[in-house]
Amino acid sequence: MSLKSALESGKFVVTAEVGPPKGTDIKKILHESELLKGKVDALNVTDNQSAVMRISSVSFCKLLLEMGQEPILQMTCRDRNRIGLQSDLLGASILGIKNVLCMTGDHPNAGDHKEAKPVYDIESVQLLKVVAGLNAGKDMMGNELKGATDFYQGAVVTPESNPIEPQLMKFEKKIEAGANFFQTQAIYDIDKFKGFMSYARKFPVKILAGLVLLKSAGMANFMNKFVPGITVPQNLIDELKEAGKEKAMDAGIGIMARHIKQLRDEKICDGVHIMAIGAEDKVPEIMERAGLL
Amino acid sequence: MIITKKRDFKALLENIANYKSFFLIGCSECASLCGTGGEPELAALKIALEAEGKTVTGTMLPKTGCQTLGTKIELKKDKDACAAADAIIVMSCGAGTQSAVEIFPDKPVYPANDTLFLGNMTRFQMFDERCSLCGQCILDQTGGICPVTACPKGLLNGPCGGTNEGKCEVSPDIECAWVRIYNRMKKINRLEDFKKTLSPKDWSASRKPATRIAREEKKEEKK
């Protein structure tokens, strides 16, 4: 089932993500993808995540299609100008890729090629508009396309961004630009997230709550300190600490499974986006413990 | 103003290794304010060069170094000193250096400064980049704060996910341009401007090399 059909069917949708490696040895990512096959509804393929140079997102999306999976092409504006972006979108379309997640992209400063020239010819809101245009058979300059695209387009939002007002105004711009679904930055406080959802529900878009697997108390503290827009509440950090070093990952899996269960049982949002960050093999276990498998 | 900083003196010495005598040109505009090309800097470079066994045939501080014609006229009084120099060293921005290249077609010209950006002096010799010379001003739509310049990604429609309590993901030393814009728009009651989606920029307006002949427009205006 396509991501669009899954979301529109009203089922609780689960997406996860895989990050292509640096280098041509893809055994590990193929194995991880295989593990998730038939379990998640769609799989994001990151686009040079954290501005670290890796295999292109489009290429690995194509391999996922060949495996019979539903890929979500992550597309950032960091590395390509408007000509490159549109060209790659047309290319993705003829390969059969149906879902595109439009993002501005982490600055090269975060990555392993800090001397790179950042492009940002356009940005996330404008890219969503570009995709809407390609879907309508026109390029950015209004030129007629010989054959339109048919993308289901997504975007990202940070529900705990501080200050929140400009973030929400941008969220509304993204909807206006054509976003159909959103995957959020990681959330850990479900009550707070309910507040965001009661606002977001006013709009005709599907929302997947972003969940990042906590592997240790140290990781939680690190994210609180260094990752903008992510707040891990103290009670969860204590829970990881109490579990002890060896069982911390297990506790993290428990926390995520509990959150997924609550989000689904209380119908808080339309699904979840699981970011296991290097522990993709744990996703089936998370889903099992959440009662999804 | 154009912000400059002094180039490494060793690099300059390598540039001029094959020459013995020099004429030094500063600039009384931006480079003077930056402390990279005023009277004191001209004097200091003279001493430093002489300490290296070089000869300085003269120094000159033009009114506006990037005003090629005016600088050429001002230099007339230093004709002999210039003629006696093997090479020219310019202590201003890249534009001032290239004035000298045009004025001295037969002499090597070397820059003593690196040219950094167009910005404002916010406190004594503290400079903030404010304008990217993009050729298509959007300050009217962004509360008077330029995101093309102040946001490392040049975003036009609000902050990215990396904004963090008013700081930028690229460096906590950078204030998030879009939080600044939001706060400013709120203060001046223009938040409706924030809600408008800005179209992609027309980068053809900043294509290089740009030339502008303002006198043609003046002629048109007179008609």
SSE order and pairing:
The complex is a heterodimer of chains A (about 290) and B (about 220).
Chain A (H helix, E strand, L loop, with lengths): L2 H7 L3 E6 L8 H10 L5 E4 L11 H10 L4 E6 L5 H13 L4 E5 L20 H12 L16 E6 L7 H13 L3 E6 L3 H11 L5 E7 L4 H10 L7 H32 L5 E5 L7 H7 L4
Parallel strand pairs in A: 1-2, 1-8, 2-3, 3-4, 4-5, 5-6, 6-7, 7-8
Chain B lengths: L1 E5 L2 H7 L5 E5 L4 H5 L4 H13 L3 E6 L7 H7 L4 H6 L2 E4 L3 H10 L5 E3 L1 E11 L2 E6 L15 H4 L26 H11 L3 H5 L18 H9 L1
Parallel strand pairs in B: 2-3, 2-4, 4-5
Antiparallel strand pairs in B: 1-6, 6-7
Describe the protein:
The complex is a heterodimer of chains A (293) and B (223). Chain A has 293 residues and is an alpha/beta fold. Chain A has a single domain (3-284), classed as Alpha-Beta Barrel (TIM Barrel). Helix content of chain A is 43%, strand content 15%. Chain A has helices spanning 3-9, 27-36, 57-66, 82-94, 124-135, 165-177, 190-200, 217-226, 234-265, 283-289; strands spanning 13-18, 42-45, 71-76, 99-103, 152-157, 181-186, 206-212, 271-275. Chain A has an eight-stranded parallel barrel, surrounded by six helices. In chain A, helix 8 packs across helix 9. Chain B folds into two domains: 2-116, Response regulator (Rossmann fold, 3-Layer(aba) Sandwich), CATH 3.40.50; 132-206, no CATH class. Chain B is built from ten helices and seven strands. Chain B has helices at 9-15, 30-34, 39-51, 68-74, 79-84, 94-103, 147-150, 177-187, 191-195, 214-222, and strands spanning 2-6, 21-25, 55-60, 87-90, 109-111, 113-123, 126-131. In chain B, strands 3-2-4-5 form a four-stranded parallel sheet, sandwiched between helices. A three-stranded antiparallel sheet of chain B has the order 1-6-7. In chain B, helix 4 (68-74) crosses helix 6. The chains are: A alpha/beta (293), B alpha/beta (223). The A-B interface holds A 78, 82, 104, 106-107, 109-110, 118, 120-126, 129, 140, 156, 158, 161-163, 165-167, 169-170, 172-173, 176-177, 185, 228-229 and B 152-166, 169-171, 178-179, 181-182, 194-195, 197, 199-200, 203.
